[in-house]
Each structure stands twice: as C-alpha cells, then as structure tokens.
Amino acid sequence: MAETAETAEKGAQRDRSTIKFPYGDLDDAQEVARTIYENFGLSCSVDQVAAAMNQSLSGAFRAKMATASTFGVVESARGQVHLTDLGARIADPQTGATARVEAFLSVPLYDSVFERFRGARLPGDTGLEAELVKFGVAQKAASKARQSLQRSADQAGFFSLGRDRLVQPSVGMIAPEQPTPPGQTTGATQMPPPDAGVQTAAPPLTQHPLLVGLWQELPDPKVKQLDPEQQANWIETAKLVLKLLYSGESARLGVGLTYGQTPPANETRSGIVEVESEESRNERR
Description:
The protein is mainly α. It has helices at about 1-15, 25-40, 45-50, 60-70, 85-90, 95-105, 110-115, 125-135, 140-155, 210-215, 230-245, 250-255, 280-285; strands at about 45, 75, 80-85, 265, 275. Helices cover about 50% and strands about 5% of the residues. The longest helix has 19 residues, at about 230-245.
C-alpha cells in the first residue's frame, strides 16, 4: 500500500509543471496591456477589461489574463488589475518592440531555453519538448508549452534569423515624430528665394583656403556667364591648385598650404584667383 501511495505521488508530481510558463502567447499579453492602457490608463477592474475586450469572465478570458501576468505586464489583486512598468511600455507603440523582448525573457521557462541554446541550434519539436520536460514542464503540457514558446519567440523577434535558433533581437528606442510647424512642409527647410540680379554667396566649405577661394570666384550662372577664355583660365587654375594640394608639389614650390592661411594669389582678367609659386615671385622681383 505504501508503495502504491508513493508511486501515485510521483505520478502526480510528473503531471504538474514545476516551472512557470503561459498557455497563451505574447500577443495575448500585449492585447490585454493595450486594452487597459488605451481605455483605462494604468489600472481598472477585471470586469472592465473583459467588457473592453468584448468578452465574458470565461475560462478563455481568464487564460489571457493569466498569460499577461506570466509575461509580467499586469498584476491582479481583489478584482483589480494594474499595468506594470513593463506593461505600460509594451502597450506604447514607441517602446513596444523593446518591451516585447524583455517580456519574452521574463518568462522563466523561455529564459531557461534561451540560455540553454544560446548560440546553438534548437532541436526539432520532439526534442524541444523533451528539453522542456527536463526544465520542469509536465509531460502532458509539453506540446502546448512548446507551441506557445515558438509563437511568442516569433512575435518577439527571436526567430529573425530562422526558426532553428533563438537570437535576441537588437531593438532600439524609436524616437517620436516631431510635429511639423504650421506653414512648413515636411522635409528640407524652406529658404526664401534670392533677389533677382543679386549674387548670393557660395555656401561655406570646410576645405583648404585655395579651394574655397577658387570656388567663391565663380559667379552665379543666373546672373553672369563666363566666356570661353574665362572658363579655360578657371579650369587651368583649378588644375594647378589640385596639383599643389595632392601631388606633393607644395613642398617643392614653397607654397603655404596650411589651413587657415591666406594663399598667395593675384587677380586675372576674369577675376579668378591665380596661384603663384614662391619661385615665380622671386623671379618677378
């Protein structure tokens, strides 16, 4: 008789799970959290949640509430339900993605499986269920536990690289969109049109003064055109500047090329800066 009682007790222990996991999935938990958040704020009664979800206080509804509790998004006491900090974040579209990852890992069974197979392939369904039993899932509940785990992992983004491994997604916080000021279209800042006939200054360049001076000598094509000779002079000057800056000629010719210094130059007929070497200036003197 004693052996029979002991055997029955061991059998009962095998039929009870010793590790916590939900029968629903992560979407169920998020649905509960969003229903509370969008309709009642951070807390309400269980009856109010059921009414807002258009459900009765049935077994299916209570299973969803239990799932939300297991994922750590709600806490219930005396007919009242409260959103946790995690629950408020999972209900907010701006922080929901990050909160889903945290909620998945807050389930003891899921966290154990993730750590056990970190960096390794998951076994097939039968092998995975056997592993769940080793973690403390009752044999008769192993199939449902495995299905809930797989659905929740997919919903949280852990299967982004394939369903044969759990990889924690890297989810950043999404910055809220800034409202567009009245009278301004979305996109680049609108600039007032320049006055007709007035040459606007060239945009500042964080380049060598020789390049800046060369660029700033170009007139606005809407205001003034260069004749062929002026264009040829500008191109030849540009070639000389590029040669001085990028071919090592500056050291041989003695032209100062330190940023912030004013380069030696004189004006040509076209108004274009013409660089003169130290040797040429000495000969002219």
